[in-house]
Amino acid sequence: MLDFYGLKEKPFALLPNPRFMYLSEPYLETKSKLLYFLRDRSASLYLYGPIGSGKTSLLRLITQEVDGDPQANARYVIAPNVRTSNQLLRIICDAFGVKTARSYGQSLKNFEAFLIAQTKEDQFPLLLLDEAQNLNTDELKLIHYLLNFVSNERVLLMIVLVGQPELADRIGRHASLKSRMVSSSVTEMTREDMAKMIRFRWTVAAGGHAGANPPFTTKAYDLIYQLSKGNPRHVVKLCHAALLQGWVRKSRQITAKMVIKANKEL
What we know:
- By secondary structure, the chain is α/β, with parallel strands linked by helices.
- The chain folds into 2 domains: 2-15 and 189-265, Helicase, Ruva Protein, domain 3 (Orthogonal Bundle), CATH 1.10.8; 25-185, Rossmann fold (3-Layer(aba) Sandwich), CATH 3.40.50.
- It is 51% helix and 11% strand.
- The chain is built from 12 helices and 5 strands.
- Strands 2-3-4-1-5 form a 5-stranded parallel β-sheet, sandwiched between helices.
- Helix 10 (218-228) runs parallel beside helix 12.
- The longest helix has 17 residues, at 104-120.
- The radius of gyration is 21 Å and the shape is elongated.
- It starts with a helix and ends with a helix.
């Protein structure tokens, strides 16, 4: 199929590859906020949005960029389905290579000592916690406690919580935690942003050749937006299925009828 469409890679794979991440205005704003607070070492952030809106892809893109900062010590963790703050603390400590102890209190002291040592080495730990809507009340209290580690000039740890809209509701019930974090959200794309995303992914898949145009007709674009409601993951799934329809029919143009057929097979 790639040769048929003149591509080097699959343009609509579901894997969260940062190279295929199109930054519409809400995503660009969130990325800019996070990188600003990272450089300023002044605040933490929580990001929420619906399933399939590209939050994990954005996190991976940010992680990739942060890796180039010699002072940033970033760790990406998927929020585990655990019941206690002690279990969560152990996972966070393991991510940063901090030794845990039998007692919860001693593990906290070890982590605090780690943060102080990082400050002396001019390093800034960053915890990126995905699927954070899974965190319970005790675990959110731990997050709040960790954010209390500050010096006179800066915070010693930056935390980015990312999750579904329930995350905002959970944090909203913890006023003290909410007061220490900046919020950001992403939603479904506009019709214009969807078309830009499709073109962007197609260009990347074509090896960066700017003249490579996606084969979708205007009516196909309209229908993809209507069926997906602008959800990035749904757009990608539908585009991939429609390309398969075109490949089977040996058609280099993807029509609305092909989109309809593709949607029925999803």
